[in-house]
Amino acid sequence: MSPLVRRDLLAGLLGTAAALPLLRARAGERQGNEATKPAAQRHSQPLRLPPPLAPGARVVAVAPGTWWEDAQAEAERLRGRFAAAGWLLVVPGQTMGRWRWFSASDTDRLAALAGACADPSTAAVVSVAGGWGSARLLERGWRPSRRPLWLVGFSDASALLLAQLAAGQGGGIHASLGGDEAQWQRLVRLLRREQAEPLQGTGWRDGVAVGPLVVSNLTVATHLIGTPWFPDLRGRLLVLEDTGEAPYRIDRLLTHWRSSGVLQEVAGIGLGRFSWKEEDILQGDLSMEQVLQERLGDLGVPLVGRLPVGHGRPNLALPMGQLAQLDGRRGSLELL
């Protein structure tokens, strides 16, 4: 790591330390009277869920961030997958577009996403491209549908999933539309509101915790802390993943989470896949797993690593807000 990069890291950590009193005060304000309630009471009201996707259901593909790579070929492949499941995948023209590093301007992407969600014939909206841009649509005024609606995506689309959950709506699924048939069929089962098998990882801290799931890309979620689109994590099971971030940058992100107070009452933490370039690590640096365990292992909650979630394969689907059990001894995450 160059001296310039290390100086950047030090500046970021000093900035977090300087802001710590204010962040803690704001965290206390958010908790208010709710802080005296047990976690089970705070999440006793179940989320409103969409009905199972029925045969013939209309699913709309959107590209809320970066343009869709190999759009024509991917659209045909996905149409076939959805048709085999008995559903109709609609791919609007804007979804196939390209403007700068986005699929379209903010205005056009917002109109496409809002229009798909508002159309009463739409049973599900699926994000087909990642990159960056979904959070810009939150800033522009996108709000989750008032009716329960399936919303599928991951990576950049985590911003939309988190905003929907923060608004008290169910139906979000952290998932990729790619992968092999087994990965796809897991998503199909969840969209039909059928049971899906547990995920197996590695237990890093013992204990068993039960709570609603919050699943996200770490970088995307970090930049929503302090906004209206970041859900309350108290009493919930948090599952995080990331890609392209060196261990020292993951350390910096997680230090911000700790300092902001959002992890104070989390029920348990699961960690999916974290990938980075080997040249981002110098001899003597902490490894990725050392960073994850050191930053999250002292919170007093079950901790499970190496879950098959996130960038890479398999990327197994998880439903936002659904009750689940995290077992830190067995290293498992089970939907309830």
Q: State the end-to-end CA separation.
A: 44 Å
Domain unit count: 2
Strand content is 15-25%
CATH class of the largest domain: Alpha Beta
Largest sheet: 8 strands, mixed
Q: Which percent range fits the helix content?
A: 25-40%
Describe this structure in words.
The chain has 336 residues and is α/β, with parallel strands linked by helices. The chain folds into two domains: 58-191, Murein tetrapeptidase LD-carboxypeptidase, N-terminal domain (Rossmann fold, 3-Layer(aba) Sandwich); 197-335, Glucose Oxidase, domain 1 (3-Layer(bba) Sandwich), CATH 3.50.30.60. Helix content is 34%, strand content 20%. It is built from ten helices and 14 strands. It has helices at 3-31, 39-42, 71-84, 106-118, 134-140, 158-166, 181-191, 218-222, 247-260, 288-296; strands spanning 58-62, 88-90, 122-127, 150-153, 172-174, 199-200, 202-205, 208-217, 237-243, 268-275, 303-305, 318-319, 323-327, 332-335. It has an eight-stranded mixed beta sheet with strand order 6-14-13-8-9-10-11-7. The protein has a six-stranded mixed beta sheet with strand order 2-1-3-4-5-12, sandwiched between helices. Strand 4 (150-153), helix 6 and strand 5 (172-174) form a beta-alpha-beta unit. Mean pLDDT is 89; it is low at 1-44.
